[in-house]
Design goal:
By secondary structure, this protein is an alpha/beta fold. The protein folds into 2 domains: 7-233, Spore Coat Polysaccharide Biosynthesis Protein SpsA, Chain A (Alpha-Beta Complex), CATH 3.90.550; 235-354. Helix content is 51%, strand content 12%. The strands form 2 sheets. A 7-stranded mixed β-sheet has the order 3-2-1-4-7-5-8, with helices on both faces. The chain has a two-stranded parallel ribbon with strand order 6-9. Helix 8 packs across helix 9 (235-263) and helix 9 (235-263) packs antiparallel against helix 10. The longest helix has 29 residues, at 235-263. The chain is elongated.
Length: 368
């Protein structure tokens, strides 16, 4: 008796890819016939209305299916819905525009069958390449995006949209909440993937249609990274954002003070106004970014609490500095310690009192 073959679904998110779909199907057909894999193709279409559904129907192939999505339309959610839709052993995710080579699918499937948590088609490992006319700016964009992802997972190509994973690995994931057009990092973090293996690929230009990548989608990638930082690092992530906001507030304070000293009267008033402006700035950014989960709570109460906490933090800074004044020859040291303790107090008060979460927790999305 022959052992049961691993069943594979190739999940492809589509939107207005009617010209590329027949070419994609033909190349996947070649992989299916030559590899002997029990493979089907699942196209998750975001209601293109460009003839894509009719084109798939006209092919009349039982191993090719299209699901038309009309809600929560985005590439990431199209992929997630596709993964929930299929019940096969292994899934492969790839783009519809033929930038990814389907011929690499058997190698990727073999790697996850052999124990890898995820096999990733990478442009940036030895043996990988991109189209000759890719351009410096496009390359730079990918490398900068890779740097943003490094604290989350050390991958050669975290922006890759071509990867394979076992269904059992996916089913272990929880709290899926992607945004934008890149789903790989979401799955690696939420499914707790440890062993990621690169497969070198040639990344080609799309054959037909227009790229869906826009500046707005790139901003969504940054938003997605931020969500994953918070998910993975929790309070530490909030602290880093709090410190970054604090540095920007310092810049606002110094800039405002410089301008006010030139145009207004008493220096004491100028100093007070600069501090007030920087405090408002810090509050707005902390509420918007560092502690965004608390934006639904009363803003006036939060602002009063923030000002009070910062004032108390300044007092803490003052007394810590004075308390350590005689212990150090260089007086900058107790001053620095005072600033650090005061900042720590401000953060703790902001995180756990002013912007405290009232049972805020991402909605758990179990797979089944």
């Amino acid at each position: 008796m022959n052992p049961t073959r691993t069943s594979v679904t190739v999940v492809v998110p589509t939107y207005r890819e009617v010209e590329n779909i027949p070419l994609l199907v033909e190349r996947v057909r070649g992989v299916r016939e030559q590899s002997g894999l029990d493979l089907n193709l699942l196209l998750m279409d975001d209601d293109s209305r460009d003839g894509s559904a009719e084109a798939v129907q006209a092919l009349g192939l039982p191993w090719v299916q299209m699901v038309t999505r009309t809600a929560n339309r985005s590439l990431s959610w199209a992929v997630l819905d596709g993964l929930k839709h299929t019940k096969r052993d292994v899934f492969v995710v790839m783009d519809a525009d033929l930038s990814h080579p389907p011929e690499k699918i058997p190698e990727m499937v073999a790697l996850v069958e052999g124990g890898a948590d995820v096999a990733i088609g990478s442009r940036f490992v030895e043996g990988g390449s991109t189209a000759d006319d890719w351009g410096f700016l496009r390359w730079l964009n990918s490398r900068v995006a890779t740097l943003f992802a490094m604290p989350l997972a050390r991958l050669s190509d975290p922006m890759s949209g071509f990867f394979a994973m076992r269904r059992s690995t996916f089913e272990a994931g929880r709290d899926f909440n992607p945004v934008g057009y890149k789903i790989l990092l979401e799955l690696i973090i939420k499914c707790r993937c440890v062993r990621a293996v690169d497969v070198p690929i040639h990344f080609d230009n799309r054959r037909f249609g227009k790229s869906k990548l826009s500046f707005k989608e790139q901003l969504k990638y940054l938003q997605h990274c931020r969500r994953l930082y918070i998910y993975k690092y929790g309070t530490w992530s909030h602290l880093v954002q709090f410190l970054v906001v604090g540095l920007s507030g310092l810049a606002v304070n110094l800039t405002a003070l410089t301008l006010l000293l030139r145009v207004l009267g008493p220096q004491k008033l100028d100093v007070a106004l600069a501090i007030a402006l920087s405090m408002v700035w810090n509050f707005v950014l902390n509420r918007r970014f560092s502690f965004s989960y608390a934006r639904g709570q009363a803003v006036v109460r939060q602002f009063i609490g923030f000002v009070a906490a910062c004032s108390v933090g300044a007092v803490v800074n003052y007394f810590v500095t004075l308390g350590l004044w005689g212990a150090f020859e260089h007086k900058q040291v107790p001053a620095l310690i005072g600033v650090l303790v005061g900042t720590g107090f401000n953060f703790a008060a902001s995180r756990f009192v002013i912007f405290r979460s009232k049972h805020v927790r991402p909605e758990t999305q179990a797979i089944g």
